[in-house]
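Box S2. Input/output pair 1.
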Amino acid sequence: MPVNPASICRTFVLVGLLCAVAACGGDGGGSRRDGPAQVSTLAYVVTRCHEEKGGKGYTGSQVLWVRQGDLPPVKIVEYAAGHPAIGGACRLFGQSRTGNSAPLLGAFQRLGVSHDGSLIVFEVTDDFSTFTHVVPEEQQGIFAVRSDGTGLHKVAPHSNDPCFRVYWPCVLAPDAPACSSGNAATIGTVFDFSPDNRRVTYTDLGPSQTGDDAPQVVTLDLATGERKPVTRLPPLPVSPECVGQDTDCVYPSTLPVRFPTFLGDTTIAFQRGGGTSFFGGGVFTVKADGTEEPEAVQTVALPGGAVVPIFQITGEPYATAAIVPGIPENGPSYSAGNNISEAFVIEPPDSELPPGGRVLQLTSYERSDTYFARMGNDGQHVFFIASENPLGTNPSEQCQWFSIDRLGGDLRQLTFFDAVGDRRRNCQDTAAPGCSITSSGELDLITGALMFGSTCDPVGSNPIGVEETFAMRSDGSGLAQLTKMQGVIHHADGSIDVELAGPARVPTRYR
């Protein structure tokens, strides 16, 4: 069989890409409680592969697991993985230490958990995989299953819009000037549920105003399987020059339409295009029934021109990260490039903030890796990660979780991960030796626990330092490891086995 040179190139640089993408509640400071923190429903994908000596004889598989509380996980479905163009891919995957790049390699794509924790929705297709196609078309689609593992059924065909974008020149040469302000890859594996748990929103190809097919926001009725496009957006030009420009354009590794999110039952927000804000360029709302054209969300400009949107429709504060002027003192990160990123809270009108003071900057760390800002379930506290030492309790400047109230007080360091290795780590730096936080946190709507991925070993159950899923209460207590992966196993005959987890989801709000 002829070998595609592009596939060979993709496999050679797989380890760089895997490292690069390791990339869209409670009371915030309440009393401590005994025992480990729990999540209500955890859905996660486990990817395994085996390779003989010299990279020969590759085999692989992916499994979707669901765990309820502290019960044993239930296996939902398993798919075989395709083959790389050349050997060595399993070893490179293991070296990445994180499974969040799994959508590029196999069948599982988008994943979501309903707000009440009762239903899992997941997407299966390997049509866009960098490996060979092995999953029959009749086994592909969007599926739903109850959280106890019963009632598995197909809801609709899979999306024709890949949930990831890759810019291969920056995978090959991440230090090139053109790559300093953009990610090598972006993966958006979220199905967001409506508040009534009847629909999910995501992106799919559909007709635009010009008649061309382009990524659109769609909804899917989980009872009837009706897929409804709610936008008719024209295609966007793609260029490396889009970063930092207020142009209707996207960087090659940026999803053109990203993070569609329900704001109530009748409105969906989404991001589109370029711009100077870390939160995204154009931010729009659209009626969930598709009867009106999208409207731009009101924005305010931070000093230096960064733009932050105000979701007045929700009537609630929300948290985000935004780029501010300056060069970060700790160098570039995967999410912000060579820019300073800080945490902000956005207040609606008639809030506790004075008139006109709707944007409050919560951090001033002048680093590139202050992000994953999340508003707590109580609407009063913001959670974020950073590698700063604002309280004198993080002298090694290791990546940690922090919380702060929405008016900038009561700053707390929630994790105390030990530094590993001989250099400081930007958050999400997955290179070994060392450890970091490797996936964005999700606040469980039911238990209030914060779920996240990390290659650290805070409870003594991750000595090999692969990405595991952890949970803790909103005050930092009850830190618990929820998964246990084998990582890389080297056998005496030269063969290897690899097992890594990701992505993972709990019931949450993506706002």
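Box S3. Input/output pair 2.
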Amino acid sequence: MKPIISFCLLMTLVVYDNQPPSVTVTVDDGLYVFRYDDNTFTVSAKTGGRIVSYTCQGKELLTPSSVHDQNYGATLWPSPQSEWGWPPYPVLDVEPYEATLVKDTLLLVSKPDTASGYLFKKKFYITPEDGAVNIVYSITNISDDTKQVAAWDVLRTAGNISFFPVDEMLPSSNLKGVTIENGILWYAFDPDLVPKSQKLFATAKDGWLAHACNGMLFIKTFPDIPTSSLPPNQGEVEIYAHDQGLYIELENHGTYTTLKPGETLEYPQKWYLMAINDTDNHEALLQMVHERLDKK
């Protein structure tokens, strides 16, 4: 009987080792903190449902409010910007959202915003099998008029190396430090090249954008859309560099959608964050992105 017992014990250990790490969510004064493996992901229900922190092994990806008291973390805007100018609608961008946590899934709902005619919903959950933060943004037309809008994901971080598969550079781009190699656009951040704010507008292929900084590799995936579906004067992917390089924004836009009163659009994404050895090797970075996305 001894060999049978040993075999059973071995099988138990193998099954245990193959289990993905568990996800936990804690709540503290409106902050919802997801913990998974070496990562934490934090959303503030009190501040526009904004993503305020994303860490790997204790290192922070997102620009904090101590760097800029308004433009920090990551959030959803309605696109195109020409429809609203500046600043963003307060109800959607900074005011509290109603939060519902069911198991490990968080749903945040804005107040109805009569100024814009929209209601925003933001759903967050982690899939342990691929280590991804899943984000589903939705925009509902609460006005009495038919409206056209796209989802606009805006993330602020420190500049270093950003890259994605490029289809077409749009003529309004003025971002310095950009090169294209074998169909991949690379942006090498240099604060000396950003005396004033600059921006890149482009169409993309394959639906992903990556960024390496501070010993981390960040990847976000999103629906790949044709140029004909873009909102006016916007790019599928955009990179913004703030004056003097205070921070950069990694942005992506969804399909420009006609919404009748009461209709809703959804914009899903997956975010990944992993520790890497500090590298400026383009081939190595690109290989790491492909390996991660092949596992999803």
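Caption for Box S3: Residues 2-17 form the longest helix (16 residues). Residues 1-16 have pLDDT under 50 and may be disordered.
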